[in-house]
Amino acid sequence: MNILLLAQLAETPAQDPGALSNLTPPIQIALLLGAMSFATALMVCVTAFTRIIIVLSFVRRALSTQEIPPNPVMLGLALFLTLFVMAPTFESINEKAIQPLLEAQEIQAKDPTATPEFDFQQAWDITVVELKMFMMANTRTDDLELFFDLAETEPPYERLETPLKIAVPAFIISELKTAFIMGFCIYIPFLLIDLVVSTILMSLGMMMMPPVVVSTPCKILLFVLVDGWQLICKSLVSSFVAV
């Protein structure tokens, strides 16, 4: 709901920035905390984070290692892989939106009577376009068509003209589908190890021993021998379409 509300707000005209200064400090703090929650939703919903963290979770479950690696390690790896994948997009946003906005604010601070040549609304529009370029390059056409049908609207001629309220959910379910396909492919070799170990234990008459006790070290050994973390990271990064 937060990201959909943010998408609707993005398509409305910019409000008077001086209105915020008239609010009481508690309300300003509440708005700041709300903006931080929006930033978190934005990080999860419009970047590569969703696919990466789901695939890494599949790897941990396939290895049957419970909480190893720990959640902070998994989140940290997912975050920095996301920054690596999104680096071209973030650099473009910084160059085209953030830096011009900072320069315009610096000029206005020196001369309050000067008319700013670049405002927050322009910076936001450029940021949305850059994020849309990444999302549309990694979103399936049938997922977009699904939400256009649900919204009962006709698809635009250009993909970049897709409104955020359609682009974001379509991108999310497309990422979920891709992540689950990759997770299925990861599970297959480890499932075969479980089946082989279970068959061997049954043939030896060791039915009381849990197969996971024997299969887990075997899966970890296989994962280490094939340099699994390098393969997973390489596959994740190369699975995204560069823009």
Shape: elongated
Through-space gap between termini: 28 Å
Question: What percent of the residues sit in helical stretches (DSSP H or I)?
Answer: over 70%
Mean pLDDT over all positions: 77
Query: Helix-strand pattern, N to C?
Result: HHHHHHHHH
* Poorly predicted segments: 1-21
Task: Tell how many strands the DSSP assignment holds.
Answer: 0
Largest sheet features: none
Number of domains: 1
- Strand content of the residues, in percent? under 5%
Question: What does the secondary structure layout of this molecule look like, with pairings?
Answer:
Elements: H1 2-10, H2 25-45, H3 49-63, H4 71-110, H5 120-137, H6 141-151, H7 164-203, H8 211-225, H9 228-238
Feature tags:
single chain, 243 residues, mainly alpha, 9 helices, 74% helix, 0% strand, disordered N terminus, Flagellar biosynthetic protein FliP, transmembrane helix, transmembrane
Q: Can you walk me through this structure?
A:
It is a single chain. The protein has nine helices and no strands. The chain is elongated, with a radius of gyration of 24 Å. It has one domain. Residues 1-21 have low confidence and may be disordered. It has 243 residues and is mainly alpha-helical. The chain starts with a helix and ends in a 5-residue tail after the last helix.
What's the short story on this structure?
By secondary structure, the chain is mainly alpha-helical. 74% of the residues lie in helices and 0% in strands. It has one domain.
